[in-house]
Design goal:
- 2 copies of one chain form a homodimer.
- Chain A contains 8 helices and 14 strands.
- By secondary structure, chain A is an alpha/beta fold.
- A 5-stranded parallel β-sheet of chain A has the order 2-1-3-6-7, sandwiched between helices. A 4-stranded antiparallel β-sheet of chain A has the order 8-9-10-11, with helices on one face. Chain A has a 3-stranded antiparallel β-sheet with strand order 12-14-13.
- In chain A, strand 6, helix 4 and strand 7 form a beta-alpha-beta unit.
- In chain A, helix 6 crosses helix 8.
- Chain A is elongated, with a radius of gyration of 25 Å.
- The two termini of chain A are 45 Å apart.
- The interface between A and B is medium-sized, with 34 and 35 residues.
- Chain A binds a DNA duplex through helix 8.
Chain lengths: 224, 224
DNA sequence: CCGGATGATGAGACTATCGTCATAGCGTCA
DNA sequence: TGACGCTATGACGATAGTCTCATCATCCGG
């Protein structure tokens, strides 16, 4: 369930927003001051709805602080301040949308859907090839629906191979990119790691995807 | 230079928008119908400004077609239709923002900046705090312009602290997130790693940024 | 079909990383 | 100020990750 943090100091409006969000199937966290907002903003909030005028300070400053750290989560500013300067200031401070009070609850929901939709595509960057997928931030590799338990070097090697999928990569290229030195060319370190990677990567009974190109290097992808 | 496609059939408004964008340093492509828009979109466009009522059809249908193929580029809908149903329909069709005519050119520019800012985030994701910055894909941490040579655990710990900057994190929270187990609470592993991290993170002669909150936990950021 | 070259593989050595422990330092409160 | 509890720190041992080496398998040209 997606969690939304609502920062709003008017009790009636806060209650009304929270109720609507609950009914729409979102999880909600409510804050009526910047102080309590700071407490509730942990990394697993998916969206923030922010009123600007709060008892203990200006919401824009809080927003700037947040954006200095991270571009997530998206922030939808909801405020009575409708002057153009205010709108520009809000958006430039890092807001992802700016909605002026009074607003229709339907429009609020539509804008929430829009922001969350955008988040989904924005999830961790990854590389993939066929049924193989590597999340570059959590550093997890999955083949089909089976997680692969790889060591660091094996993962680095695999990422390099996926990034250069369906083309031959020489040992020199691998040494330079994965080992950051050329010396590795003189030993058979690469062969050893390719070997270890194959054991975990290939599925017995299915055609291999990590091929040796004799005299040239390796190739990840469809047989040449 | 970032390129913006403007789809608008009122010649005066179209000209005015294009001029403003040019002056702001954007590249512009102009279309006064869906037909010409289809032609121009095949080029590399970073953002689309879309009027809904066009001579040869409804912009929303065109938007839906586009979104069926790709979530890029972002689309900013600009229209005279200001009914709530219209706004909801536009956002749900895949628009990334919805601006009602007449609008201030300053707000249009602010919303364009907002949308493009998000696109830029396509580079490696990172977290930062003050002069500290961590690239989450290359897994490198930099303080000022000095790279920090951190071990895996130290980096994981630092990422967690930055993500929860300026708030107290307890040992239990750290154990759960970084070690993925509660057992670490019973030893002083965390203290040891915090200690090692401090040696590499703190700059002698400058105020510390990784504080101990006696009896509670640790805090990364400004002194409490 | 043979021999040299190239790549694969298992075992073990080396090493960086990590966790534990003992002890020292420091704050806090009576 | 003294004692207690919490935190810092250096050293050491355990472990997982990485590399080396010897040997085996396979390919390809005579």
């Amino acid at each position: 369930m997606q969690r939304i943090l609502v920062i709003e100091d008017q009790p009636n409006l806060l209650r009304s927003i929270v109720r609507t969000l609950d009914e729409s199937g979102f999880g909600t966290l409510a804050a009526d001051s910047l102080k309590s907002a700071r407490k509730l903003l942990s990394q697993d909030v998916d969206l923030v709805i922010l009123d600007l005028m709060l008892p203990d300070g200006n919401g824009l400053e809080w927003l700037s602080e947040l954006r200095a750290i991270s571009k997530r989560p998206p922030v939808l500013v909801v405020t009575a301040r409708d002057a153009i300067e205010d709108r520009v200031a809000g958006l430039d401070a890092g807001a992802d949308d700016y909605l002026v009070k009074p607003f229709a609850i339907e429009e609020l929901l539509a804008r929430i859907r829009m922001l969350l939709r955008r988040e989904q595509g924005d999830s961790n960057p990854f590389v993939s090839l066929g049924d193989l997928r590597i999340d570059l931030v959590s550093r997890t590799a999955v083949r089909g629906n089976q997680a692969l338990d790889l060591q660091n070097r094996q993962l680095e090697l695999l990422i390099y191979l996926v990034r250069n999928a369906n083309q031959i990569v020489t040992r020199e290229m691998i040494a330079k990119s994965v080992w950051k030195e050329d010396t590795a060319t003189w030993t058979n370190v690469i062969a050893v790691h390719v070997n270890q990677l194959r054991k975990k990567l290939e599925i017995p009974g299915q055609p291999a995807i990590l091929h040796t190109i004799r005299g040239q290097g390796y190739l990840l992808g469809d047989a040449p």
